């Protein structure tokens, strides 16, 4: 809301908080003021100077309007203060088109001021603009004006040159294509540019003609023999220069005055693209030089920039014409050519090639996918187009990774199943995703795996980090790159079901990602958490089993405890993760969390999430107990044995088969949960024998934080994770005893089960080293044996 103060016959607009004068305008008795929409007052000053006064409230507008009407002696109920002037304007606009044209003054030096006033005065009336345009066109007036410009410039007649600037600018604002054809012809365009150099508001004239004739150079990557095409390219460049550089940004009242000028440029570009596309000899020569190893770097850079501009011009084409354009480029070999130039060292060339690639992906991702799959049958993985794109993303030298962000968006488009085609004899989705995960995924995840490797973590820990035994790089650019990769992987989790599940479990990828929870860059820790959240959001029991077996909630809870009492985005995101598990009642995860981490989390009372998890756990435990009591005792004392060697032969069979379905109705879930307590002992004996040298690294005893909670040590190695579900689940229960905190060099003594196995249980389960994961998977199956320890 602004304050308007009146002093005599002047009104001044003040900014309340500064008290400075923003506008002072005299209320002229003959000026037409108009009130619009109850909160806007508009009027014109000088020859072509429009003003508007806007109010937040109607009351303020009414108050000022009354004062204006009082000065002009008008009734405040009117919406226009000068009815007579408006009526005259309406009368002019209602004149029939057959009425005589506007009489133009003779084209002489002493008439330039009169001509300028005439051109400026008609801009507010569409009918008068039309009549003036017809008069200028019929009498060849523009060429006469440009002859006067040369005379004024030779005589150094500054006043005349200023008038010519107003005249030519006004003619451009007439918005007539027929006049543009004359003004932008080879004969006239440089004189038009010359007139526009002499802006009266500038102390010295600009030197636009010097720039266009001497500085700007027209580069022909391949000589253009068509003279009409050459002329059209020159004209388009110069007219674009006039619009973008010479003419000032149009005001709100002038924004529609140059619409025809924009259309003129648009249709010129369409014509250029069509003429080039039809000249197959020209394009073939361009592609030949682009892919020729003998072509020098400067020439190749010019060729790539030509194609970049060529593709940019193609965006002006109609859809069907644009389809034909890109199909022509594909037929000529644009994709193999891009593969070569995107791998070059020249940053400018790579950037231009990336822009061209983006045009192709946006036009037809299927075309690009088809090319790379055909290419995979003939080439090594390292030189595949998609791998070249991924490597460019990884190696982006920009500190802000601007190019990497663009390439990541293109990759996402290529791997998005939503734009993949499915026909009767061909399923693009399955074919391409098989290709991508077999040939490209390892390139994409290489930086992630390299920066979260055990060797790197141990090396970083030696340097002096206060984190546990895993640390991620503190380099900001590397952190940004890892965040981009995680964003793409999160997209894969959401849209690729089978393929990404295979990859995550085969590579133990989630464990590696959760190492990044230790990053000092909160955005990277949040990316890692988001990745886990998407996995849990699928509510897939294979994923749930993988998480509980690997004890993968541990780094998340460590991050929550390290965050302390700070109420920030990381805190909220972790709480939301556990709240989702509670609301969705994911029983296997609830049991795992409560049994392993409730002692560390029960002190968090500012939300009811963890108490709610405990409640859900106890309710499920009661239901299982009631179910157990209804089963005959003879069945409670027996169990089926399974030969571990009979489990799946490969990972794919493991995902698609559920061997544990048999016997589910016979063996009560609670009984198997109790048998699980016997499993860690035999498993730990095997692990001690196999990994004696790593015993010092496996002291995963929880540590109490300064806030009084617990801190768990996150073991990075995949082998330690395999026994986490059986062993680490006991470590939390053992914390309640002071003796357990004394420490021990042997993990097997520190992590002894807190609850002894019942007498009726059997321990005769054989462990086979090659199938240790399978045995434990069977023992910890969430559907059959929720971990409901007493």
UniProtKB/TrEMBL annotation:
- Molecular functions per Gene Ontology: protein phosphatase activator activity
Q: Where is the composition biased (Acidic residues)?
A: 652-664, 768-779
Q: Which domain of life is it from?
A: Eukaryota
Name the GO cellular-component terms: nucleoplasm; protein phosphatase 4 complex
Compositional bias annotation for Basic and acidic residues: 671-702
- Record-annotated PP4R3 EVH1-like domain positions: 21-72
Q: Start and end of every Serine/threonine-protein phosphatase 4 regulatory subunit 3-like central domain?
A: 114-619
GO BP terms: namely: DNA damage response
Q: What Pfam families does the annotation carry?
A: EVH1_PP4R3 (PF22972), PP4R3 (PF04802)
Annotated SUPFAM superfamilies: ARM repeat
Region annotation Disordered: residue ranges? 652-790
Feature: compositional bias, Low complexity: 715-752
Tell me the InterPro entries matching this sequence.
Answer: ARM-type_fold, EVH1_PP4R3, P4R3-like_central_dom, PH-like_dom_sf, PP4R3-like
Family of this protein: Belongs to the SMEK family.
Spell out the protein name for this chain: Protein phosphatase 4 regulatory subunit 3B
Question: Which species is listed as the source?
Answer: Cyanistes caeruleus
Traced from the root, the source organism's taxonomic lineage reads:
Eukaryota, Metazoa, Chordata, Craniata, Vertebrata
């Amino acid at each position: 809301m602004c304050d308007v103060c009146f002093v005599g016959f002047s009104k001044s607009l003040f900014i309340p908080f500064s008290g400075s004068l923003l506008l002072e305008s005299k209320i002229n008795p003959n000026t037409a003021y108009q009130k619009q929409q109850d909160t806007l007052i508009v009027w014109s000053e000088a020859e072509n100077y429009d003003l508007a006064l806007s109010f937040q409230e109607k009351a303020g507008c009414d108050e000022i309007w009354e004062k204006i009407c009082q000065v002009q002696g008008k009734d405040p109920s009117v919406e226009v203060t000068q009815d007579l002037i408006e009526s005259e304007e309406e009368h002019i606009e209602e004149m029939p088109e057959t009425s005589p044209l506007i009489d133009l003054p003779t084209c002489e030096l002493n008439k330039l001021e009169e001509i300028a006033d005439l051109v400026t005065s008609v801009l507010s009336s569409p009918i008068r603009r039309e009549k003036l345009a017809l008069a200028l066109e019929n009498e060849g007036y523009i060429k006469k004006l440009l002859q006067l410009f040369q005379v004024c410039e030779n005589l150094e007649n500054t006043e005349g040159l200023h008038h010519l600037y107003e005249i030519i600018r006004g003619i451009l604002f007439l918005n007539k294509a027929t006049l543009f054809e004359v003004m932008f012809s080879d004969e006239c365009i440089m004189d038009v540019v010359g007139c526009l150099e002499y802006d009266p508001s500038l102390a010295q004239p600009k030197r636009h003609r010097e720039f266009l004739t001497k500085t700007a150079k027209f580069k022909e990557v391949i000589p253009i023999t068509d003279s009409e095409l050459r002329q059209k390219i020159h004209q388009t460049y110069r007219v674009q220069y006039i619009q973008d550089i010479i003419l000032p940004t149009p005001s709100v009242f002038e924004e529609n005055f140059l619409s025809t000028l924009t259309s003129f440029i648009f249709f010129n570009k369409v014509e250029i693209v069509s003429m080039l596309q039809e000249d197959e000899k020209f394009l073939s020569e361009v592609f030949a030089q682009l892919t020729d190893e003998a072509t020098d770097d400067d020439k190749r850079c010019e060729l790539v920039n030509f194609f970049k501009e060529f593709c940019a011009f193609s965006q002006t084409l109609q859809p069907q014409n644009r389809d034909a354009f890109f199909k022509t480029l594909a037929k000529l070999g644009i994709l193999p050519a891009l593969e070569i130039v995107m791998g070059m060292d020249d940053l400018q060339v790579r950037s231009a090639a990336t822009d061209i690639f983006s045009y192709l992906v946006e036009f037809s991702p299927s075309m690009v996918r088809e090319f790379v799959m055909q290419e995979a049958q003939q080439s090594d993985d390292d030189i595949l187009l998609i791998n070249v794109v991924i490597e460019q993303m990884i190696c982006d030298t920009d500190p802000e990774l601007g190019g990497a962000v663009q390439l990541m968006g293109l990759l996402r488009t290529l791997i998005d199943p939503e734009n993949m085609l499915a026909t009767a004899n061909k399923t693009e989705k399955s074919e391409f995703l098989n290709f991508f995960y077999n040939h490209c995924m390892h390139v994409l995840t290489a930086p992630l795996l390299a920066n979260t490797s055990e060797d790197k973590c141990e090396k970083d820990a030696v340097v002096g980090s206060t984190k546990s035994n895993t640390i991620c790089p503190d380099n900001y650019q590397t952190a940004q790159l890892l965040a981009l990769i995680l964003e793409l992987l999160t997209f894969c989790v959401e849209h690729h079901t089978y393929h990404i599940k295979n990859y995550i479990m085969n590579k133990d990828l989630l464990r590696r990602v959760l190492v990044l929870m230790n990053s000092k860059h909160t955005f990277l820790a949040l990316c890692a958490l988001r990745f886990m959240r998407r996995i849990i959001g699928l509510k897939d029991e294979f994923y749930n089993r993988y998480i509980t077996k690997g004890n993968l909630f541990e780094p998340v809870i460590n991050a929550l405890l390290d965050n302390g009492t700070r109420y920030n985005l990381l805190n909220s995101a972790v709480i939301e993760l556990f709240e989702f598990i509670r609301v969705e009642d994911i029983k296997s995860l609830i049991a795992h969390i409560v049994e392993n981490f409730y002692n560390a989390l029960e002190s968090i009372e500012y939300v009811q999430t963890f108490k709610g998890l405990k409640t859900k756990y106890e309710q499920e435990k009661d239901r299982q107990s009631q179910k157990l009591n209804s089963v005959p005792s003879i069945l409670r004392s027996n169990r089926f044995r399974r030969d571990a060697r009979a489990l799946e032969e490969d990972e794919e069979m493991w995902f698609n088969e559920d061997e544990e379905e048999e016997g589910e109705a016979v063996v009560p879930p609670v009984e198997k949960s109790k048998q699980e307590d016997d499993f860690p002992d035999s498993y730990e004996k095997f692990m001690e024998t196999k990994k004696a040298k790593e015993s010092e690294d496996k002291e995963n005893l929880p540590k109490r934080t300064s806030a009084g909670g617990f801190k768990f040590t996150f073991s990075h190695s995949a082998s330690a994770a395999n026994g986490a579900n059986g062993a680490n689940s006991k470590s939390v229960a053992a914390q309640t005893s002071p003796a357990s905190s004394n420490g021990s060099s042997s993990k097997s003594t520190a992590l002894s089960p807190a609850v002894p196995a019942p007498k009726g249980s059997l321990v005769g389960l054989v462990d086979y080293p090659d199938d240790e994961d399978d045995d434990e998977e069977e023992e910890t199956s969430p559907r059959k044996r929720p971990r409901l320890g007493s």
